[in-house]
Specification:
Length: 76
């Protein structure tokens, strides 16, 4: 049996909204972070999830830093 999982987290602060999404279908997974500003979509960063993280999610374990490489690059 293949493992399927879907989770969406939405954080809103003022006019900015961040949506973090994890989707695993048939054992393969993607993670994405979408940024919105005043209701308009700005950027989406999407990456594959490594097999080790998929097994941790399947066991119900916390994966520290899962979205760390999907960060929005801010200009300084």
């Amino acid at each position: 049996m293949k493992f399927n999982y879907y989770n969406k987290e939405i954080k809103q602060r003022g006019g900015k909204k961040t949506v973090r999404l994890v989707s695993i279908k048939k054992g393969k997974g993607h993670k994405s972070v979408s940024h919105y500003h005043n209701g308009k979509h700005q950027k989406t960063h999407k990456k594959m999830i490594c097999p080790h993280h998929i097994t941790m999610i399947k066991k119900g374990k916390f994966v520290p830093g899962l979205f760390k490489d999907c960060r929005h690059n801010k200009k300084v």
